[in-house]
Every structure is written in C-alpha cells, then in structure tokens.
C-alpha cells in the first residue's frame, strides 16, 4: 500500500520543493540526541530545514532551533490526534520521511500509518533485512553496542552526508528571556551561600543538581544526595547549588536543597530546566533527559547511568559517568558518587 519502489535511493536534492519530515515522537532524551541528525540533514537541503513529528512532551526540545521548520505534534494517547495528523500529512506532500526511532522495532502500527498518510515515495529508516519493509531507503541497523548517535549517523548518509566530516553534538537553543530568568535564579543561589569564617574560597562555579529519573528504580535516594552534596559543600563552601526535579518531587527538591545550602527551583516547564542547565557550569544527575541537555550545552557532568544504558550516555561530554550495575540505584553507595563528584569539582570547578 505504500507508494514508490520497493528499494531505491534518494533523488538529488535540487530545489526547495524537496521536503523532509523527521519522525521522532517518544522520549525527551532521544529527541535531544536527534537534534544533531536533524541539523546535518537540514544542512544538506536547499531549504536548510527539516519538519519534525514530536509529542507535546518532546516538542519543547526543538523550540528556537533554526534547522527545524514546522513541528507537527502528535498526542500518542489520542486517536483524534492521529487522525488530525494523518489528514495534515496528506496535505503536506513530503518528498522524504525519515524514521529516527532506531532503538525501536520498525513495524509499529503508528509509523506505517503515518508514512501511508504522508504518501512520501521515499522513506528512510534503519530496517535491516526485516520483512515486510516500510522503508525503501534502508540503512544498517544500530548494533545497540555503539553509542545511540553512532547508529543514528547512518540515517544522514542517503542525503549525501559524510558522517566523519560533520559535528554530531546535540544542541538546544535558549531565548534571551529564558537565559535571563535562569541567571536570576543563579544570583539567588549565590546569595544563599555564607562561607564560615576563615574558609578558603574553593569552588565558585555553579552546580546544578537534578534529583529526578525516568523510572523509580533509577531514582537515587534523597539521603544519599544529601550526604554526597554536604561533603561537596564542605570542600566548596561558596559554590552556588541549584536543586531541581519533577514538579511531583518538590518536597524532595526543597529538602535536599535546604540540607546542602542550595536553592530549590521549580521547573514546571521543560524549558525552565533547560535554561538552568544552559547557564550552569556543572551538572549532577541520574540517567534522565537532563544528562542529554548537559550534552547539548557541553556542560561537564556527573551522570549516574545504569550499566546497560551506556549507549545512551551523554554524547561527547566531559565529566564523570558512574555505570551502576545493581538491581536498583539505591544500592549504589554514596562514597562512590562522592569520589566522582570530587573529581568533577577538581577538574571543572576551579
């Protein structure tokens, strides 16, 4: 039922009518990592832009991105949203549709339906040798051993992109007002710090601490955050610290911040958290979208990452990664994390 030849190559990119739609509608971290792929495909097009299917949760990642044209929003739990989007895709007449979800099986109901509705004659994806194919421009499957971005690079090759000659750093763009609001919060955090008499100057750079994780088994306990950060505070008495977390975890955010002389900051919108990452000097977080935001802003980070998730580590980001192999992160000893935080402060907190 899908149009176009069964196997083909992309036609030459010759004019602005050559339109590309990128499909990536799941996790925030995945969308952040996809920004480098979007950028490199966009730069290969006359228009310099790629349209993107996102969700209400992931769309804020693309705000202000000069390489993104239109953001088509899909509410995945709404049949009406699917219907509305499919009707929109019929009108748009894209030349190429790219499935960026290399970490999921290609044969989901939603993706074939969207590609069918879009009617694009060229459909790029990491399909391997599976049948039936929904892609007619197939690139090698990701081996799930190399970094996720290494696997994603192949999706740019059909557009004439040489993966070895371009930058693959993810990126997030902040508006001036977002940056200004975050700077005000850091000013408040600095004003909270009152070093004891005779204390040495120590670390003065800003440390952002994120408590939240995407799953309870990856949520490090408040008490261990407190012990670790209190030890860091003793060594760096005038270091501004901001503590954030999900809105549902505000009680924990306030408690940890109070215990370590930091500022608790609510982040009701994802962009609020991004702005704090972008204006920080260092980031301490479990395995969440915040680690990928730190990568996008090139911020040195301490990341607590489940060992089998190492292919999803922040890309090309300085700092420390603790790959924990316990069943649940609460078994991870704070002494191990404190040692890594010490090293982060020594290397990047001067």
The percentage of residues in β strands lies in: 5-15%
The H-and-E topology, N to C, reads as: EHEEHEHEEHHEHEHEHEHEEH
The main pleated sheet reads as: 6 strands, parallel
CATH topology of the largest domain: Rossmann fold
DSSP helix count?
10
Give the quaternary arrangement of the chains.
single chain
Going by CATH, what is the homologous superfamily of the largest domain? Glycogen Phosphorylase B
- CATH first level of the largest domain: Alpha Beta
- Estimate the mean pLDDT confidence: 92
Which percent bin holds the helix content?
Answer: 25-40%
Radius of gyration: 22 Å
Which parts are unreliable, with pLDDT below 50 for 5 consecutive residues or more? none
Instruction: Quote the distance from N terminus to C terminus.
Output: 61 Å
Query: How many β strands by DSSP?
Result: 12
CATH architecture of the largest domain: 3-Layer(aba) Sandwich
Q: Which class best fits the helix and strand makeup?
A: alpha/beta
Structural domain tally? 2
What general form does the structure show?
elongated
What strand line-up does the widest sheet have?
3-2-1-4-5-6
